[in-house]
Amino acid sequence: MSKRLTTTAGAPMPTNDTSKTAGERGPVMLDDYQLIEKLAHQNRERIPERVVHAKGWGAQGTFTVTHDITQYTTAKIFSKVGNTCDILSRWSTVAGEMGAADAERDVRGFSIKFYTEEGNWDVVGNNTPIFFIRDPYKFPDFIRTQKRHPMTNLRSPEAMFDFWAAQPESVHQVTILMSDRGIPVNPMHMHGYGSHTYSVWNDKGERHWVKFHFRCQQEIKNYTNDEAERLIGKTRESYQEDLFNAIDEGNFPKWELNIQVMPEEQATTLDFNPFDLTKVWPHDQFPLIPVGMLEFNKNPDNYWQFVENAAYSPSNKIPGIGFSPDKMLQGRVFAYADAHRYRLGTHYEALPANAPKTAVHHYHKDGTMRFFPQMTGHPDAYYEPNQYEESARPDPSVAEPPLRIHGDADRYTQEDKDADYVQPRKLYAEVLDDDERRRLHQNMAAAMGPCSDPVKERWFAVLGRVHPDYEAGVREAVKTAGDDNAIPVTDDTPTQAAE
Ligand code: HEM
């Protein structure tokens, strides 16, 4: 039997398609409040899209601990093999707006919310182990170059390569972006990385530095530029379709959580900075240690409620897991919660996607959409400290061991170091094979084709410092691509008037 349609205030509605008019043909009467309500609601159906990573796809699932890592961390979720918790993922592209095509060449966001018994732990990473920059000061400028030009309102390769050429530490990430890994066929066929160095501590108060890796249990698959262009001509929503249908048909994607671990003191003795987000930790020195399995087995009942409303933040951590001196991480610890208060509202943590699945007790108070009861444990305890036994109190036993800081607080100049070229050089010369290098040259040439000559030359100089063959290969590919990048206007080119 159908349900009775009601107003938002619960009163039964006589109609949902005919306005109340003064005469048979109108005008509409102002007291047709439900018509006004319906139009007003539609006007409020949008919130600001995420300033970056606006286009995304999500799923719900379960995390199961498969290996014992209690020697490294006190985090309750890892206290026993077999422990499980619910998880919510959101994968995304970085630069495109909400309506952007899915199969674009871009870094992919890889966010997981673990709803643990000691609160929500968010890993807000990417499908690459590193990033373009290592100082949060540069992030807004970097993102400007990825978004639209203020005058043309078009994406600007000139701005992208101009910025990258001035930030040589970006060449490692740009190499990955322009490689075969730059266009995964969908989120189910790529690895994920926490990217930053985090820390964990054990019950003896010993700290280790860690990196989180999500190893894809499906085959790694990517599109070439041509394949992606053809696909986007047919559908702009290929990721949403692939992901939703796979889960709907019971083909649940899985990732294995692994960690790389470094004892606290070792960080001071390495020949690279382990807190520099533009560097990987070599796997032969820091092997992957398996921890658990993530399985995504449920499509959210409502995309908006669980994927659009999802508020991920590197600041969401649980006892046993901490930050590191990584400057970028500190910038992000501030930026995300601030973005959520603006995008979703003050009490965004109380929305179903973000609400912890454990008891919550805090003294934050009122504001818009304050729809939850007092969380302090006692009606008279609206401040802390207080005299009421049952009220919520801090628990010093979960305190993090002190973070040892070396050196004086200062701004250190960004030197142009050869260290920035070592890892990309290894990637280019030792990891990629000839075919992969050829495609890298071509992809990069296609991306930088529209740039001015001075910007091209500055970027070639960066590539030359990575490896002379890299510079020569991309130079050649740019020359060969020649005018292919220009869109020819012919008599057959449709115009507005002709249509
Ligand atoms: C200082 C550097 C950075 C700043 C200030 C920053 C800021 C932001 C902001 C404001 C958002 C939108 C949040 C929202 O409205 O929900 C966002 C989204 C995101 N960022 Fe960053 N970001 C930085 C670096 C990074 C890095 C290094 C990574 C990956 C390693 C990353 C991965 C993501 C992901 C995956 C999302 C989308 C989260 C989701 O699915 O909702 N960001 N970032």
UniProtKB/TrEMBL annotation:
Domain of life, per lineage: Bacteria
InterPro entries for this protein: Catalase (IPR018028), Catalase_clade1/3 (IPR024711), Catalase_core (IPR011614), Catalase_haem_BS (IPR002226), Catalase_immune_responsive (IPR010582), Catalase_sf (IPR020835)
Cofactor(s) of this protein: heme
GO MF assignments: catalase activity; heme binding; metal ion binding
Region span, Disordered: 1-24
Species of the source: Poseidonocella pacifica
Active site (catalytic residues): 53, 126
Protein name: catalase
Similarity remark: Belongs to the catalase family.
Biological process annotations from GO: hydrogen peroxide catabolic process; response to hydrogen peroxide
PROSITE patterns: CATALASE_1 (PS00437), CATALASE_3 (PS51402)
KW DNA repair (keyword) present: no
EC nos: 1.11.1.6
Reactions catalysed according to its record: 2 H2O2 = O2 + 2 H2O
Span of domain Catalase core: 6-392
Binding site for heme: 336
Keyword Transmembrane part of the UniProt annotation: no
Alphabetic keyword roster: Heme, Hydrogen peroxide, Iron, Metal-binding, Oxidoreductase, Peroxidase
Gene3D superfamilies in the cross-refs: Catalase core domain (2.40.180.10)
Polar residues compositional bias, start-end: 1-21
GO cellular component, one term: cytoplasm
Function: Decomposes hydrogen peroxide into water and oxygen; serves to protect cells from the toxic effects of hydrogen peroxide.
